[in-house]
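Hi F.,

I've been meaning to write this up properly since the lab meeting, where we talked about keeping a consistent format for the predictions we share between groups. The idea is simple: the sequence comes first, exactly as it goes in, then the structure tokens exactly as they come out, then a line or two of notes. No screenshots and no reformatting. I'm using this chain as the first example so we have something concrete to point to.
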Amino acid sequence: MFVLLSGSMAYDYIMDFPDSFKNHIMPEQLHILNVCFVVNKLEKNFGGTAGNIAYTMKLLESAPIILCPLGNDSHDYVEHLKKNNINCEYIPINKEKMSSSVQITTDKNDNQISAFYSGAGDGAKDLRVKNIKEPLALALISPNQKEAMINHAKECFDLGIPLCFDPGQQITALSGEELKTLIGQAKFLIGNDYEMKLMQEKTGWDMAKMLNHVEVVITTLGVKGSVITTKDKTIKVGVCTPNSVEDPTGAGDSYRAGFFSAYLQGHDYKTCGQVGAVASAYAVENYGTQKHKFTVNEFKARYEKNFGEAISFNLK
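Output, unedited:
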């Protein structure tokens, strides 16, 4: 079953700051902020929400299709995708612009400051879901150029393709009315606890009102796990303890890849959340969002060890 991933494709410049941001920012002086964080580690990695989710989905032997452009510096990224057997047919190359890029600085408390350059990603709004030939069982509308998110969500809704709305960092770019429309077109809504509060503030909807417009709300809580809420019940999902914490960037994307890979296999929501938790643990153990590796059998063994139950998980 094919999964459409409408989201960003970017080069990630990931940096570690060995102190806390709060020690170097004076709240009373924010109107003249001028601060430099001296980092002790820098890496350039393949990233973007669509790229990250596709990478982990493919490890789980799902079938992701990315709908997003890359730029004139895309050769390495395209080769990386092909090496991992990820469909590149719907990734056009813009020869006039560089690919999107993001600079992410993480402090010792796992707080992050990011700067994003859209570049070739601006062309995502011109791509059409209807041009995808493969049958789509699900679509994930993740952070990307605002108009692309709106256009692709409406297309999926009109075409009867179930979708997950995952606005992330783009919540601030969307108006309250736009958020209401997008949530109403979705079957799933996903975000972390801060993002959920921000969406509730912008829409004026509390959780109960949100569930009048979307079937399932998934709230990720970092080291506290996740909560899956429907009209009928609230499901608390535990974490999978990582062997080490190298970099939290991309953990949420891996969670999404795990959750929806399991969902398409017909698993219940709690199992989906637990699969997402295991996938995210692999991500944080590696520096970079597409560096982790596992086989399906290794994944199943880790799932059983962490949650104390076996999983029937034939992902082919």
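Notes:
The first helix runs from residue 49 to 59.
The mean pLDDT is 94.

If this format works for you, I'll send the rest the same way.

G.
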